[in-house]
Amino acid sequence: MMAPQEEAAPVGPVALVTDSTAALTSSEARDLRVSVVPLHVVVDDEEFTEGVDISPQEVIEALRKGRRVSTSRPSPAAMLACYEALADAGATAIVSAHLSAQLSGTCDAAHLAAREAPVPVRVVDSGSTGLGLGFAVETAARELREPEAFGDGRSAPELADAVGAALARRTRNSTVLCYVHSLDCLRRGGRIGAAASFLGGALAIKPIIALAGGHVEPVEKLRTSGRALARLAQLAGEAVAAGGPGTRVAIQHADALDYAENLAADLVEAADSELPVQIRELPAVLSVHLGPGTVAAVIAPA
User: Which of UniProt's keywords are assigned here (predicted)?
Assistant: First the structure.
């Protein structure tokens, strides 16, 4: 289960906040001392909180039954409550890193809350989501345990700026590629963006898309699932090879475990050395917009 909102005690003077699309589990968020503010899923006008009272599988079932499913950002008040709790716990600065501002209003909510926060808040638009964001948040959390890596004598706000800049750089350098089984959910949610003209009106095609510059960008469109998944494996393998030592790899999916396991096996086979590959479900909010059958490859260089 993904982490619901958890106001974790900061490790030091700088606390770290992200949102539920980062795909951190509750135990990971707790161990890393990361506070997670959840997004929301709305099914037929009933609102649910990601990681609390709705699961990715329940979202998939609702989509397959043709129910009306949408998402909403955290409120600025929820963000502010998180920041205030962290300040009460001893934080004197906060890094708040979230999914791409081109895909959600979550960063806007964070900026609004930051104006009222009792301590300085460095809001980071990751330009990414899923474990493209989650891997960078994990690394930032570990860096905050060894702040001397950023140099001695920094104030907490200066350290927050340095950690936030490093986090943003990592997400920019990461690759997120998706095989989308159907365009229906992307079109309905309005997240298809610049890819719309490229993909056209043919709902039967099997596209590969990427997150680039915070936007959904088209990569290729193929006629069969088999060809699309083979091409995804090839592109992901190239990104892994370019990433160098220490590159982290994850396959996320929306009720497509077989596809995910096959893709992971292809990447391991293609790698010259042992390659750990995590396989996880896509968060509920991302499943709403990408739809059942989606497989995403996340490649995050060290």
Answer: Lipid-binding
DSSP string spanning 87-152? HHTT-SEEEEEES-TTT-SHHHHHHHHHHH-SS-EEEEE-S--THHHHHHHHHHHHHHT-GGGG-T
pTM of the model: 0.92
Which of these, 58, 18, 54, lies nearest to 34 by C-alpha position? 18
**Tokens for 44?**
């037929």
Q: What angle do CA 145, 211, 289 make, to 5 degrees?
A: 100
- 125 and 162 together in one domain: yes
Let me know if residue 266 belongs to a domain: yes
Q: Which two tokens stand for residue 265?
A: 């096996």
241: pLDDT confidence band, cut at 50, 70 and 90? very high
Highest mean pLDDT: which range of 19-23, 181-185, 195-199, 221-225:
19-23
- Measure the CA–CA gap between 87 and 10, rounded to whole angstroms: 9
Residue 47 lies inside a defined structural domain of this protein: no
* pLDDT value of position 193: 54
CA atoms within 13 A on the CB side of 250: 22
Distance between CA 99 and CA 130 in Å, rounded?
8
Q: What are phi and psi of 201, to 5 degrees?
A: -100, 5
pLDDT digits (tens, 9 = 90+) for 27-38: 999 999 999 999
CATH number at residue 21: 3.40.50.10170
Q: Any bridge partners for residue 277, and if so which?
A: 249
Helix (H, G, I), strand (E, B) or coil at 205: coil
Q: What is the 3-state secondary structure (H, E, C) of 4-37?
A: CCCCCCCCCCEEEEEEHHHCCEHHHHHHHCEEEE
* Domain range for 149: 14-39+74-172
Strand ranges across the sheet with 69-72: 46-49, 40-43, 69-72
